[in-house]
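> forwarded from #structure-qc
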């Protein structure tokens, strides 16, 4: 990637965390924009290598103008077949754009802390090694959009990673979170630690040294593959049908997720 990657953030002091570290280590320039605070989104990604839409405390269902505008804007990278990655809220925005539903868990559960995930057969083809647990911070979930392919599932929220077309991906969890980011989130968002299903602050920091090394390795592998999609994977990604009722089909009832 010689052109910059467009990074879309949703709060004034949000940072791209390990995603930013990854691009910086590989010499990939970054163009950070915050549409919520007036930054424009480009009409084309001709001058960008791809786009990453990060999370935030808002919902993809919110009526705010910037939320609707971002969801609509996703047509640009999809039409141009540029690498697109949505993380948590960004994944939910992508699902909404593709016609999938986003909503709360049917029993009001949240995932805040470390939770297990399982790659599907398609996910194992894309990345050989996956972490057993990932860091979550959400209480809404995704219905797998029509034509998308499930790459990883969870227990409470079934859709954890999905692919659409040759280069668009949605990730429900937060592999990008650094130790400093976790400190901020569990302090400023401490009230969310009381939601049903959420882990205590102590559990967040107890679990981190157990699971974080595998998460970090997976993120680097994933981003390398995402930024330069292999032709065979691009050709095999479904674009006009939902996976058959097998290990790749998931409904919202098992798949709910905000960041």
């Amino acid at each position: 990637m010689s052109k910059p990657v467009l990074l879309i953030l949703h709060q004034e002091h949000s940072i791209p965390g390990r995603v930013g570290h990854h691009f910086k280590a590989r010499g990939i320039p970054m163009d950070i924009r915050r549409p919520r605070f007036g930054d424009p989104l480009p009409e084309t990604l001709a001058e960008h290598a791809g786009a990453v839409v990060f999370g935030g405390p808002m919902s993809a269902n919110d009526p705010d103008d910037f939320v609707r505008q971002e969801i609509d804007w996703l047509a640009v990278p999809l039409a141009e077949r540029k690498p697109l990655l949505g993380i948590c809220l960004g994944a939910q925005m992508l699902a909404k754009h593709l016609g999938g539903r986003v909503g709360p868990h049917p029993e009001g559960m949240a995932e805040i802390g470390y939770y297990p995930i399982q790659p599907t057969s398609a996910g194992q083809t894309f990345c050989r090694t996956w972490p057993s647990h990932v860091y979550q911070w959400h209480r809404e979930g995704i219905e797998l959009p029509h034509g998308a392919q499930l790459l990883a599932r969870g227990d409470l929220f079934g859709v954890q990673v999905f692919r659409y077309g040759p280069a668009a991906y949605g990730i429900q969890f937060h592999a990008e979170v650094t130790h400093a980011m976790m400190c901020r989130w569990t302090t400023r968002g401490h009230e969310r630690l009381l939601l049903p299903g959420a882990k205590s602050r102590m559990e967040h920091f107890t679990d981190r040294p157990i699971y974080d090394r595998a998460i970090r390795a997976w993120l680097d592998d994933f981003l390398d593959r995402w930024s330069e999609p292999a032709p065979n994977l691009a050709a095999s990604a479904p674009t006009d049908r939902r996976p058959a009722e097998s290990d790749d089909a998931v409904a919202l009832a098992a798949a709910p997720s905000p960041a």
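QC bot note: Residues 230-259 have pLDDT under 50 and may be disordered. The chain has one domain: 5-245.
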